[in-house]
Specification:
It is built from twelve helices and 43 strands. The two termini are 24 Å apart. The chain is 16% helix and 36% strand. The protein is of the alpha+beta class and 721 residues long. The longest helix has 20 residues. It is globular. Among the domains are: 118 residues, Tricorn protease N-terminal domain (Neuraminidase, 6 Propeller); 253 residues, 3-Layer(aba) Sandwich (Rossmann fold).
């Protein structure tokens, strides 16, 4: 297969992966919920439902006329509350994972003028700009300081001035961003008179130095503030800055600012109060506080503990005019939604039953309904349900039962319309616009059922199955058999593994059964491709399933995978001498552990960007799932691949980028040392200055695919025998 074809496959795989993980980009609905905004052909338009009438909001002439050609492609936008102004985001640049800094412009729809925000700041340096509630001001972060532009007075004020590369106002350090998904670090008050913001003090966090040896004849180092396991986190506090005076008052949140995290914070609607979530260092105690900005009082209203860990919340969904909020909890053994009074004294379980709520979709307070995603009988799929908001009712499945698979819904704020996306392992993501109140598509031509009729059925479909291990654990799995499969022959099997609490691999989505790194056609060449879902994966199977992995990463998940593979190897068409496993990141770690701990099962392994030593990874992630290393490092050592490197028997290819700011290349060198120590021969491929995704630079993705494929075909040759 030529390079362009390989690159296309990798790009397609990435698109599929993103659609699987996120469903699709969130719709930006108009305030009344009867239309949505869309960037189309360099313009911002609204599309009305159900008529699909299109209306230009910000046209090309306003955007690119009059010397505005430097705006570039629009990345995002925000419409002011009164609908008279639009804040446009362009010229975006990456900050670690995502393009969160760039340039911002305000399009005034009344005067038909375009004004750049923060034009005195360096190009593409603004972050998270947003309108004040009245739309007359825009606040933003630039170089770790907060600013506000007054659009009427045409002035700029610095709200903070102490920001440095390590004293961070209005956004976050590396580890908060990576592990708590914290990026936008400030919130306008409902009255527009102040802003609540995070300040992260990373001045005591040690640098991890990555080395760039290729961009000049002398090497240079790239410092990353990276708190490793056992090292103190950054200090975190919350400030309220007055817009008129630029004076900050700090919230007196109880607890040590270093030994506690604050992953979530927002204003309570229509009030001068801030609500926040605090997690202790071990992340097994979650406290919710309400802070009165006027009086300075900070009161705890809700506390939850867990023997393992507690996840950071998604935020608060307010109901009853700000007197109650919706909160997710696993305290009864399943992930459910509760309505909790603002003082925490009244708690009502809404979604009762032995099933998990996967995510909250919409609170329709007007009609007293709550919509959520769940799949009580099949953890590989996802469906929309609704239930009475006051609790005590039974959930009703909204998704038609004739469409088994994975569904995503983006519902309008008024609960009338929705974008519905459907996919399975055999059906690529297809969408319809529907009227949720009647469950009918807006047009029969655009309905999912009509689109399904135009999809050519696959002859060789992905098969889903279950295996029960000798430990009595039932695992979900999927399998893609070779084309022209002959059950009288024996075929090589390739296991795809992740294995850690951050992601599922066995889902009934279009990515299942497809290997983005194989430079060819696996089913045509004659491979069986399988993935199994071990305990600890975030599948909707209850708290015990997910949290049994606590202090057991690298052992329990590895045993589940190996015992599941052992059952698969009993199938008569599997060649026990041609068994391969591969994975990336946590999947790379699992691959190493499987090769080292169960060398008689797995003959060939390809591990990419793996954590070889859990003591080298960041504190928030690893301490959450493995407990505090300050008490004991035993679990970390027993779960790390380097502890078992001496057991390698099979063929190993290890791949890592030297510029990986997430899983440092240090892991590769530690692992190499152990393998050398025990005289274990293996193959290694390092990619200079490439990050965790190993996709930067000309030819990188193609080279990675070719390297992967050649090694697999050499040591686990394809075809039935």
């Amino acid at each position: 297969m030529n390079f362009k074809s390989i690159f296309f496959r990798l790009t397609l795989a990435l698109i599929i992966f993103l659609s699987v993980q996120a469903g699709a980009q969130d719709i930006k609905w108009t305030a009344d919920g009867n239309a949505y905004y869309e960037i189309s052909n360099g313009e911002l338009v609204t599309v009305s439902l159900p008529s699909n009438d299109r209306k230009t909001v910000v046209g090309r002439n306003l955007l690119y006329g009059g010397g505005n050609s430097n705006i570039g492609n629009l990345k995002d936008f925000q419409v002011s509350k009164d609908g008279t102004k639009v804040l446009l985001y362009a010229n975006s640049r990456k900050v670690w994972r995502y393009e969160t800094r760039g340039d911002y412009y305000v399009a005034d729809l009344k005067t038909n003028q375009l004004v750049q925000v923060g034009k005195d700041k360096p190009a593409s340096s603004l972050m998270f700009a947003k309108f004040s509630p009245d739309g007359n001001k825009v606040a933003y972060v630039s170089r770790h300081n907060l600013y506000v532009d007054d659009l009427t007075a045409k002035t700029t004020m610095a709200l903070t001035t102490d920001g440095t590369d390590r004293l961070i106002n209005g956004t976050f350090d590396w580890v908060y961003e990576e592990e708590f998904d914290c990026r936008d670090g400030f919130r306008w008050s409902p009255d527009g008179k102040s802003i609540a913001y995070w300040q992260i003090d990373a001045t005591k966090i040690r640098n991890f130095l990555m080395i760039n040896n290729t961009d000049s004849i002398y090497s240079n180092t790239i410092p990353v503030e990276y708190p490793k396991v056992g090292q103190d986190p950054s200090s975190c506090k919350l400030g309220i800055v007055d817009i008129a005076t630029a004076k900050t008052s700090w919230l007196a949140v109880p607890g040590d600012q270093v030994q506690n995290y604050i992953p979530r914070m927002e204003w309570i609607p229509g009030s001068n109060e801030v609500i926040l979530q605090q997690l202790n260092r071990e992340q097994n105690t979650s406290k919710i506080f309400v802070a009165n900005v006027a009086t300075g009082a900070v009161n705890p209203i809700y506390t939850e503990t867990d023997k393992a860990w507690l996840d950071a919340g998604k935020g608060w969904e307010w109901i009853n005019k700000g007197r109650e909020f919706i909160w997710s909890s696993e305290k009864d053994g399943w992930r459910h939604l509760y309505r909790i009074s603002k003082d925490g004294k009244k708690q009502t379980l809404i979604t009762a039953g032995n099933y998990d709520v996967i995510e909250l979709s919409l609170v329709d307070e007007k009609n007293g309904m709550l919509y959520f995603m769940a799949s009580p009988s099949n953890a590989t799929q996802k469906y929309l349900y609704k239930i009475k908001l006051n609790g005590g009712g039974k959930p009703e499945m909204v998704t038609p039962s004739i469409l088994p698979g994975t569904h995503d819904y983006d519902i309008s704020p008024n609960g009338v319309f929705a974008r519905h996306i459907y996919q399975t392992a055999a059906v690529p993501p297809i969408r319809e616009w529907m009227k949720l109140t009647t469950l009918n598509p807006l047009t029969m031509e655009g309905s999912i059922t009509n689109q399904l009729g135009r999809i050519k059925p696959e002859k060789n479909k992905v098969e889903f199955f279950k295996v029960k291990t000798e430990d009595g654990i039932e695992l979900d799995g999927w399998m893609k058999k070779p084309d022209n499969f002959d059950q009288t022959k024996k075929y090589p099997v390739v296991f795809y593994v992740y294995g850690e609490p951050a992601a599922q691999t066995v889902t009934d989505t279009y990515g299942a059964g497809r290997n983005p790194l194989y430079a060819g056609d696996m089913p045509k060449d004659g491979y069986i491709y399988i993935s199994l879902e071990n305990r600890g994966a975030p599948a909707p199977k209850g708290r015990e399933w997910r949290k049994s992995i606590f202090q057991n990463i690298g052992r329990l998940n590895i045993r589940d995978q190996a015992m599941g593979a052992k059952k698969v190897l009993e199938w008569p068409f599997i060649d026990k001498e041609r068994v391969a496993v591969w994975g990336w990141s946590g999947g790379g770690s699992s691959t190493l552990n499987l090769m080292f701990q169960y060398p008689d099962i797995y003959k060939t392994g390809i591990a990419i960007a793996a954590v070889g030593n859990q003591l080298t990874y960041d504190n928030i992630y690893q301490e959450r799932y493995m407990g505090s290393p300050l008490k004991s490092k035993e679990a970390y050592i027993k779960g790390s691949p380097i502890s078992y490197a001496q057991n390698l028997k099979g063929n190993l290819l290890y791949i890592h980028g030297t510029g990986d700011d997430n899983v440092h290349y240090q892991n590769a060198e530690m692992l190499i040392n152990e393998l050398i120590k025990y005289r274990k021969v293996f193959q290694m491929m390092s990619y200079p200055n490439r990050t965790h995704s190993i996709n930067e630079g000309a030819g990188t993705s193609e080279h990675l695919a070719l390297t992967y494929t050649k090694f697999l075909q050499t040591y686990c040759p394809p075809g039935g025998r």
